[in-house]
């Protein structure tokens, strides 16, 4: 009779344990949930702090780039062109330019500038190219026009440090073609070139197109390169021409551009005026601004003249756009090899091929048509000249041509009385022979 109460007492103890276990489990679950929530909140907090830091860095960078203007002009294409006092431009952020006296004009122009008024074929395309922002105003004397950098421009870059910079290995090296590098590098070219002498400048007339770009991080350009040093990490380069680069500018407009580097694009140099270095002296042409009109396939052709030369007196490298606009100069101290002379000149086109989905990009070079289609259909460089040690412009000797994949983009050299030394170049990229 005494055993029954003990059994009931044991049962009551077991029943009492169940709520306690459940309470502990619920408490543990609550703690875990709270911990997970706290961890999630912590991750979001870290992400917000990083985003805030990047935003502050971008704002600081914009403040450095966008100097206080005396006036601003809104271009029809959406650009803002700031008219900045010439002495306030980004060039003078360079420590070696703090007390620099601006050279307002070159001491010497090259002798023997090609007189295009004597060219019979010039009648086929005498149209004038200008910049789109000119429709809404011009900058006053003693200022220079600078395309305003917007925060969206910087945010599109892989990093603030790399904004406005090319990638390493983007220069065509005709003497070394490693097929394996095509996939690693992604840059493809169709160029003419000279080497084996000392060069003090180069000139060309380039017709202007608006090639289509497949991927936002690809670009297409046509330019001349003034090169010194090896194709290693000591490469010096001065570049000028036109480009379409959605990643850099945020649209597909064709734009005038320049570039320079003294260490193969590693730390020095940039596009246009996006770093200190190039000193602009002209108040009418804006680096990086849209140019128009554009050549039409089978129709009107529009071209620009680009001349870069080394002033034999001061030693600076000057840039001229068209026949009338001397834009400014790169001080010779920016460079090592180019402080003396160039060892190679290149002219031609370049695209970035990111190989979307494992196939070749359909980003076009030039007009997007192959050289054999000829005038009004293919892109050209004509009246190609180099500047020699006597500051004379002359036709290049021993000109060669180079392309990594001629079935994607090609080049064909020529020479005649009207155009002097010239070549057609370009292509569509992806096609049945370039899969």
From TrEMBL:
Neprosin PEP catalytic domain location is: 181-435
Query: InterPro entries annotated for this entry?
Result: Glutamic_endopeptidase (IPR053168), Neprosin (IPR004314), Neprosin_propep (IPR025521)
Coiled-coil intervals, chain numbering: none
Q: Give the source's domain of life in one word.
A: Eukaryota
Q: Where is the signal peptide?
A: 1-38
- Keyword tags: Signal
Q: Which PANTHER family match?
A: OS07G0573400 PROTEIN, PROTEIN, PUTATIVE (DUF239)-RELATED-RELATED
What is the recorded name of this protein? Neprosin PEP catalytic domain-containing protein
UniProt organism field:
Hordeum vulgare subsp. vulgare (Domesticated barley)
Q: What is the lineage of its organism?
A: Eukaryota, Viridiplantae, Streptophyta, Embryophyta, Tracheophyta
């Amino acid at each position: 009779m005494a055993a029954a109460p003990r059994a009931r007492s044991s049962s009551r103890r077991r029943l009492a344990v169940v709520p306690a276990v459940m309470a502990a489990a619920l408490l543990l679950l609550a703690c875990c949930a709270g911990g997970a929530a706290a961890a999630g909140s912590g991750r979001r907090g870290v992400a917000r702090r990083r985003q805030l830091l990047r935003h502050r860095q971008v704002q600081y960078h914009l403040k450095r780039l966008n100097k206080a203007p005396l006036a601003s002009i809104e271009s029809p294409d959406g650009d803002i062109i700031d008219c900045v006092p010439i002495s306030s431009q980004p060039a003078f952020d360079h420590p070696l330019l703090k007390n620099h006296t601006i050279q307002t004009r070159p001491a010497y122009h090259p002798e023997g500038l090609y007189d295009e008024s004597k060219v019979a074929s010039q009648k086929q395309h005498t149209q004038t190219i200008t910049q789109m922002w000119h429709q809404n105003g011009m900058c006053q004397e003693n200022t220079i026009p600078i395309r305003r950098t917007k925060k969206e421009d910087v945010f599109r870059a892989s990093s603030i440090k790399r904004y406005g910079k090319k990638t390493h290995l983007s220069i065509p090296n005709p003497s070394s073609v490693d097929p394996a590098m095509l996939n690693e590098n992604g840059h493809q070219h169709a160029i003419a070139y000279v080497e084996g002498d000392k060069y003090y400048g180069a000139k060309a007339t380039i017709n202007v197109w608006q090639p289509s770009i497949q991927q936002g991080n690809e670009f297409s350009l046509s330019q001349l390169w003034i090169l010194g040093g090896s194709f290693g990490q000591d490469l010096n380069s001065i570049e000028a021409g036109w480009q379409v680069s959605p990643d850099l500018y945020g649209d597909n407009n064709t734009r005038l551009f320049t570039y320079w580097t003294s260490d193969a694009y590693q730390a020095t140099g940039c596009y246009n005026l996006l770093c200190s270095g190039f000193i602009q002296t002209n108040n009418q042409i804006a680096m990086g601004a849209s140019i128009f009109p554009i050549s039409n396939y089978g129709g009107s052709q529009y071209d620009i003249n680009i001349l870069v030369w080394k002033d034999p007196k001061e030693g600076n490298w000057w840039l001229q756009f068209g026949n009338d606009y001397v834009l400014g100069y790169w001080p010779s101290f920016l460079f090592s090899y180019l402080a003396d002379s160039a060892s190679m000149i290149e002219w031609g086109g370049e695209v970035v091929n990111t190989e979307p989905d494992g196939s070749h990009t359909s980003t076009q070079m030039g007009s997007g048509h192959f050289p054999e289609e000829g005038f009004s259909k293919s892109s050209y460089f004509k009246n190609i000249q180099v500047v020699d040690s006597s500051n004379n412009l002359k036709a290049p000797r021993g000109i060669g041509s180079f392309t990594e994949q001629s079935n994607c983009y090609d080049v064909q050299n020529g020479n005649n009385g009207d155009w002097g030394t010239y070549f057609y170049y370009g292509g569509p990229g992806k096609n049945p022979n370039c899969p």
